[in-house]
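Protein: protein-tyrosine-phosphatase
Species: Streptomyces lomondensis
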Amino acid sequence: MTYRVCFVCTGNICRSPMAEAVFRARVAEAGLGGLVEVDSAGTGGWHEGDGADPRTVAVLEENGYAAGHTARQFQPSWFARLDLVVALDAGHLRALRRLAPTEQDAQKVRLLRSYDPAAGDDLDVPDPYYGGTDGFEECLEMVEAASTGLLAAVREDVEGRAA
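Structure follows.
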């Protein structure tokens, strides 16, 4: 059975497509590509149908990640097919938990940086949209740091299902 992860930010053009690309690469490197499906969306539909922000694409490509993406808005009905919904900041976490049809669905929502022990109490990935390239590079560093712990948690869930 496929384990499904969806990363969610505001417009699905900066942080969540970056997290999707990084985590998809981690899943493939771990040999879990056939078992884990990785996706992303935004809490709002402002950019639906658009590609990722050019700065996101540039930072991803400069660091060896694939960057193909089309923005879309998260739908509450998706909770039924998703195993894990990964929010990029506390505002997204609250919005997604409000959208969740059941308490069980609300429990599927987690903050990305909660998987990075070095993050401490600062669990938000700041929105780089209104800044320069350095904000996108910082975002990538945070996403990469959290992806190691996230991969370990997902691997544990996937292996637990197989047992």
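Remarks: The chain has a mean pLDDT of 97.
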